[in-house]
UniProtKB/TrEMBL annotation:
SUPFAM superfamilies xref list: UDP-Glycosyltransferase/glycogen phosphorylase
The organism of origin for this protein: Keguizhuia sedimenti
Keywords: Glycosyltransferase, Transferase
Keyword presence, Ion transport: no
Keyword Glycosyltransferase: yes
Recorded GO MF terms: glycosyltransferase activity
Ranges for domain Glycosyltransferase subfamily 4-like N-terminal: 14-160
UniProt name for this protein: Glycosyltransferase
Pfam family, one: Glycos_transf_1
């Protein structure tokens, strides 16, 4: 089987990392992979020799020329299947290109952002099948009119191995400039509006006086950096909040957190939640998108209503006050990741969809 994967993101964030897992896993199973990605995309270096790489100009939703460039590539390389992994124009123009070249096309849907029903009706007929990374996203598509037979859920996975090593608390606090007795809440997310950093900062305002040793470490980069830094300064939280940026060595440090907070308004599943559970860190997350699938409420963490700062504050307070609860939730989270979110299961799920779609396109099969 020969598969062309299309990933338009330039940074090696959670979605791109999932693409690398899929490509590497498929290669081990004898699938011949081709990756079409944006110029200077970090995922190209990450996958090494697991795929033949073609870097193309990819300029987003308005870049109609992407369809022509991808169609030429598809006709030249003759894959059996095209798998679209991201938005930023790749979902629409990649599907148009596949149709132009007469090759079946699959979309991986990684976000739970709602789309207009008229757009769904037009756009989703371009795909032979849609893979969602959570049941929450699948439900969004079904509510918008996509037929159930066209949508399968194959959850994202995480390689737990790098997160299983114990983190030296003293080294962790030294690395991020924290006092030795600090209680540390972390957040791992792009610095964008829907991730909910503002809710965490409000909660910290309410907690800081009762927990003088409380510190916050924000991992990630994004367009809200300046706005968030200003909010921290204006709120008098500069001595409490650390901006750690995007860390390629995150597995070495994530387990040093006492709690991971993820009060996002929307989230497809939340790879950082899976990573935190693998590192045995208890989680507070929102009841939105696929997050309740990543975090079992009362078992591996606490789930709160989206945008509810009072509930976020209360959940964080509950975990801060109870080290035994933090330990039990962390251990339960690690066990669940090892049992339910394996990369092998994700690869098998994707392969199953590939075979089903190709069977529909076999000579003599009436679609």
């Amino acid at each position: 089987m020969r598969v062309l994967h299309v990933e338009a993101g330039k940074h090696y964030y959670g979605g791109a990392r999932q693409v690398a897992y899929i490509i590497e896993g498929l290669a081990k199973r004898g699938v011949e992979n081709i990756l079409a990605c944006a110029e200077q995309a970090e995922v190209a270096a990450a996958i090494g020799r697991s795929a033949e790489i073609h870097q193309l100009p990819m300029h987003g939703d308005l870049d109609a020329g992407m369809a022509l460039r991808l169609a030429r590539l598809i006709r030249s390389l003759k894959p059996d299947l095209v798998h679209l992994h991201s938005r930023r124009g790749a979902d629409l123009w990649g599907a148009v290109a596949a149709r132009m070249a007469g090759v079946p096309c699959i979309l991986s849907r990684r976000v739970d952002n709602p789309e207009a029903r008229w757009l769904v009706a037009l756009k989703y007929r371009l795909y032979d099948h849609v893979i969602t990374i959570s049941e929450g996203i699948r439900e969004v598509l079904l509510e918008e009119g996509v037929t159930p037979q066209k949508v399968s859920c194959v959850r994202s996975a995480v390689d737990a191995t790098p997160y299983l090593n114990a983190v030296d608390p003293a080294a962790f606090r030294q690395e991020f400039g924290l006092p030795g007795n600090a209680m540390v809440i972390g957040m791992v997310a792009q610095l964008i509006q829907r991730k909910g950093h503002r809710y965490l900062l409000e909660a910290v305002q309410a907690l800081r006086h009762d927990y003088p040793d409380l510190r916050i470490v924000l991992f990630g980069q994004g367009p809200l950096l300046g706005e968030l830094e200003n909010a921290v300064a204006v709120s008098g939280l500069s001595d409490i909040v650390r901006f750690a940026g995007f860390r390629k060595d995150l597995p070495a440090w994530l387990g040093g957190l006492d709690i991971l907070a993820h009060p996002a308004d929307m989230e497809g599943l939340g790879v950082s939640l899976l990573q935190a559970s693998a590192a045995a860190v208890p989680i507070v997350a929102s009841r939105a998108g696929g997050m309740p699938e990543a975090v079992l409420d009362g078992v591996t963490g606490l789930i709160i209503p989206p945008g509810d700062v009072a509930a976020l504050t209360s959940a964080l307070r509950r975990l801060l006050d109870d080290p035994g609860l933090r330990r039990r939730m962390g251990e339960a989270g690690r066990a669940r990741i090892l049992n339910e979110f394996s990369i092998d299961a994700m690869i098998a799920g994707n392969l199953s969809v590939y075979h089903a779609v190709l069977a529909q396109h076999a000579p003599g099969v009436r679609r």
